[in-house]
Amino acid sequence: MKSATVLHSGLAALSLDAALAEPLLRYLGELEKWNRAYNLTAVRDPAEMVTRHLLDSLVLIRGGETRFTLPQTRLLDVGAGAGLPGIVLAIARPQLQVTVLDSNGKKARFMRHAARTLGLDNVEVVEGRAEDLEAEAPFPAVVSRAFASLADFLRLTEGALAADGQWLAMKGKLSHSETKDIPGNVKILDIHRLAVPGLAEARQLVVATRAS
């Protein structure tokens, strides 16, 4: 099945604007080109990229049975890789200022290229490690997608999160031990099941905040 068909079907399933298909496919085209030279992702098939990358990121906006509201102002994506989910969210929500961070130079270069090519003025690319980030102001939300263990994600990004902010950890299978191993100053608010159109695999979103 062609990637455009898969994307249009997925956008409809998530109740998202069909007009998003054009910029998302442009982003996907750039990712495909760069991936041939720099191996940014192990997924090669364009239609599979739509499901496993684009729709898997967009599910944060419309998660099947879950209706989780992203912040309206600023978001930090840690370990963004090729811009997933950060750049995809920036395309879908132009009013959201997104900072994408990755320590891998080739991935950071691709994200800068993608932001320039797509005219994404709401994207800032930072090359570096999460624990070394020096932001002008803390973020109301910090998201990760397969970045690290839950405990490491929470610990490494604590300095980037606003006092009343929330961590958003996108996970596949989530073990009981992983949620029990979190720092003592963190409280898990909820664990949402995310339904990615066309993907018959477990996806969960752990929402956490600082314990009062």
UniProtKB/TrEMBL annotation:
Catalyzed reactions: guanosine(527) in 16S rRNA + S-adenosyl-L-methionine = N(7)-methylguanosine(527) in 16S rRNA + S-adenosyl-L-homocysteine
GO molecular function: methyltransferase activity
GO biological process entries: methylation
Matches recorded under InterPro entries: rRNA_ssu_MeTfrase_G (IPR003682), SAM-dependent_MTases_sf (IPR029063)
UniProt-annotated location(s): Cytoplasm
Pfam families: GidB (PF02527)
Primary role: Specifically methylates the N7 position of guanine in position 527 of 16S rRNA.
Family stated for the protein in its record: Belongs to the methyltransferase superfamily. RNA methyltransferase RsmG family.
Protein name: Ribosomal RNA small subunit methyltransferase G
